Amino acid sequence: QMPRGNLETIHHRALVLAQLRKWLDGLRFRDAFECMRKLRINLNLIYDHNPTVFLDNIEIFLKQIDSINHINLFLTELKEEDTTTTMYPCPSHSAVGKEGKKVDVVCDALRSTMETLDPQKYCLCILTSHVRKTTPELETALQKVHELRVNPPGGTSSVSAEEALKYLLFLVNVNELYEHSLGTYDFDLVLMVAEKSQKDPKEYLPFLNMLKTLEPNYQRYTIDKHLKRYRKALHHLSKCGEEHFTEMLNLVKDQRLYSDALELYPSGSQQYKTLSVAYAEYLVEQQQAEQAGLLLWRCGESTRALQAFVSCTSWRNALAVAAQIPLPPQQLALLARDLAEKLLEARRHTEAALCLEQYAKDCEEAISALIQGAAWEEALRLIYLYNRQDIIETDLKPALLEAHSNQTSFLESQKALFIRHKNRLSVVRELKAKASLELFGEDGPDCADAELYSEASSVMTGSHLGSKYSRSNSRISSRSSKNRRKAEGKKHSLKEGSPFEDIALLNALTQIITVVDKMREEVHSLLKALVLFQFDDAASALQRDYSDLLLLMDKSIPDIWSENLQPGQNTLTGPNSTVNSIVASFQQQKPAVPQQDTEALAPPKMRNSVKWKLNILK
Amino acid sequence: QMPRGNLETIHHRALVLAQLRKWLDGLRFRDAFECMRKLRINLNLIYDHNPTVFLDNIEIFLKQIDSINHINLFLTELKEEDTTTTMYPCPSHSAVGKEGKKVDVVCDALRSTMETLDPQKYCLCILTSHVRKTTPELETALQKVHELRVNPPGGTSSVSAEEALKYLLFLVNVNELYEHSLGTYDFDLVLMVAEKSQKDPKEYLPFLNMLKTLEPNYQRYTIDKHLKRYRKALHHLSKCGEEHFTEMLNLVKDQRLYSDALELYPSGSQQYKTLSVAYAEYLVEQQQAEQAGLLLWRCGESTRALQAFVSCTSWRNALAVAAQIPLPPQQLALLARDLAEKLLEARRHTEAALCLEQYAKDCEEAISALIQGAAWEEALRLIYLYNRQDIIETDLKPALLEAHSNQTSFLESQKALFIRHKNRLSVVRELKAKASLELFGEDGPDCADAELYSEASSVMTGSHLGSKYSRSNSRISSRSSKNRRKAEGKKHSLKEGSPFEDIALLNALTQIITVVDKMREEVHSLLKALVLFQFDDAASALQRDYSDLLLLMDKSIPDIWSENLQPGQNTLTGPNSTVNSIVASFQQQKPAVPQQDTEALAPPKMRNSVKWKLNILK
């Protein structure tokens, strides 16, 4: 049996909390506070219980508590956590999302009230409120201590600078306080803190004395740098005049403070230019050559800007700068050829053609680039603009026919792959359905399905296909190599019998549909060019093939993606089903797939509104 | 009680079918056939039971049946329906998808076997097999009758032409047969059929006599036209020589047989050109002016082609044709301006600029078009190419600042709308959840939610926004007017309390996300231009705004679209739940929405891989 005395101190928490809530609602902060202290209930509740009421009645709170120590206790116990949802949840309490930083809000509110009421009396509490902020305002606190020292207050209840500093040192680590006192650039304050600390004067005095000999801005810069406050350091150093510019540049480079540094100088100045060049060098290293180019250009460093633009194939800017310099025609042409080459590598044929035509004045190369990029209409435009109809027979027509044959075989291979994946998918689904039926103890039709999993119908991945179409003439090759890479990334799961084979198949099908659907514009433009040169049969055949494939895909989508949308409800309920089986069968409709694969569950959208067919073809 | 005699004729269908299947499996077609005739079982079952076996054993079938009438009976009873799945389903029978046209397959297979075995004996059956095809082959059947008449067979079992024709008339309507006999262009045959028919010789003889006087090709054309076989008519008319070309052109126009007609003439001929022009006129009427242009161009009608291309703003082709004609420089410039105007109306600024620059030789207008289209880099390129830096101050910079302010306010409005919709959505969902809890007899927290439905938080539709940004300087205006149209189309369901308000909100949110996400490239290019001209503050602000909004959307997507992916399972099962409540709560997670709205259930994808931020901005 428990000794009687202990029983008396046992309080039922729910009862206590109910009482506290009543008190707080009645603004009886003192009773609440006393009780909470005694029963070790977290003081945050005073605020959390009803933040608005508390903030509206801070003066009443301060007057009721009326003890520096207690107020300090409250301030030090503050934390961001909302105790009404964590420690002391209340049944009828609806958690309203409180925004902003609670600790900062309470500290600021209390301090502002205390400063109105009696700054001297609440001196220590005010210091606490500075120190307790999310980012402690140590400089401000130190500044207040310093003021106490310079103008000691007269009142009896007032605190001396000595006491205040002592209290601060109790709240904050001494070294931290010393660093921050340095940050005020106020040597009296620094000395005051240093004296109170256990620091060896031989350590800090020489440094302080050295600082005192420096020019004010450079002094502040030195302190900032010592405190690793580089932005401030930069600011002060920039005021130290021309002779310190190299030091400044090094600081900027070391700390990567380029943007900050640029703001300190007028945009026309030499320093601005030097800083921009340094920044640009850094940006080029960071693979941001275009931005480097912009910075260099705007500060007048045209040649360097040109280099930067060329290095990232920002060809419009490069050519603009080149024209501004201005580059001699010969060099401009070379530059244009250089850019065109890079653009061709990036398969940006039309842009390459523009460089070649307008700047290198080489219409033949330009037309060739356009033909290579399957930009048939644009190629024709240039052919007639420069009266080079000979190119039609020598280059354009052969390219058209090759593009036609590439497109045809690409469509054929995609169609075969699509059908194979689609058929395999229905096999996999049937197997899964049977497996799940057996799981729930229902008798599925007895057939040997285990072997079906390793059935011989091999699933080809996209990787077999790309290699055939590596000619650069049409855009197919870049597309299929992308496919290949994608397909390889997921190859593991396309393997027959893998647990997510259905998902992998859905992904593969989505990919094929997307790729084929994207060809509408390209096929349309090819068809028009074929018709123009009387290749009507080829055009008709391509139109038929492509149209058939699109139709096949469009019609297959409901079949392939139906399961995710319409639960098959026939086997769901019944005399043999249990709650678990029902829930499980719902969940089984949405297979638990790895997160990155969920997109496969949504059917791809085909752009049927894009009209690509020619009416004049059969 | 039933009289005894009747009972004997009652057969249990299942037993009968089982017996039939056994017979058919044993290739005892005769027994099966007799039984089926007697018990009026559909003869299709003979084939449907096992198509492959039947087709492999046609000879056995024919020999066992060995009756012309019975074979004809079988042929006439054929239909596409698979009786094993419709009339006589078999429990152990797995429905294998049979492809192709069953009736045609059986007819052709039987006929080919009969023709090998004894064409004379099976003569009538062969005729039946022609007539029974999906598209009856009446001409072929008539031809066979005609052969019988010309070369009467010698055998005793053989059928006379007379008999055969009589049989045909029994199978086919007499007028139909007459028309088809005409279609063989064989007047003997026509007369033979006509004599058998009840037709009045005064009706058909003059027509036949008239036909006989015509030149053979024109004769056939006249017959084809009479039979409305316009493609054949065209073919024959084309052989009648130059003097009938006008008649042919009229036929082509009347029957829109342009493609067919073009195939009948060499592409260099005058007729080909005339037909192309006619076709082009028709295509222009059908809003297919570009295809019309291609046809005209390729047959050498450059001026007409130019008109067609201009009318549909197919500007590259138009300029190519114009250069080929060649148009005098003055006119070419006018043409280019005309095209540029149309392109500007269609907001295709870059293309308009190209026309103005290269063909109208008006760099100032070209640059202005580019600035209007927010193609800053391209505008700069031309400014420096033509050494018109003055335009930077007069036009480019003001346009940049205006674009900046437009983008800023557009983002602001989209953000406000997004937040409003998002908040309303969570209100609607809460209400729906409560409503469904109450539906299942569970006690939801008692609060008055009915009023909440008509809560005062008004939901703004996109339509308020567009009007502010109607300046043409940036692409915003076209975008928001599109939004407006879309939003108006669905306004009814965004109304508070409408049954699919949540779906409407999801749609609206998807739209906002898509529109804002699409701005990445545009904002990126604007930021670069702003930086180049030292508008760093404006650029930083825009980058911050846009980045914040994208982040807000990205973070909101899981909240907004969570319900569709993760069923909240806490209220699903429990002592009070029933099978119906569980099923219903699953289904309720996927609201039964109108079909066209289901896409709203999938979260929109944000293109977070598109890098648009500038590192040099804060």
Give a nutshell description of this structure.
The structure is a homodimer of 618-residue chains. By secondary structure, the first copy, chain A, is mainly α.
Could you describe the 3D structure shown?
- Two copies of one chain form a homodimer.
- Chain A has about 625 residues and is mainly alpha-helical.
- Among the domains of chain A are: about 10-135; about 415-600, no CATH class.
- Chain A is about 65% helix and about 0% strand.
- Chain A is built from 33 helices and no strands.
- Mean pLDDT of chain A is about 85; it is low at about 440-480, about 565-570 and about 590-595.
- The interface between A and B is large, with 53 and 54 residues.
First-to-last CA distance of chain A: 101 Å
Binned, the helix content of chain A reads: 55-70%
Oligomer: homodimer
Q: Structural class, judged by helices and strands of chain A? A: mainly alpha
Identify the most extensive interface between protein chains: A-B, 53 and 54 residues
Indicate the proportion of strand residues of chain A: under 5%
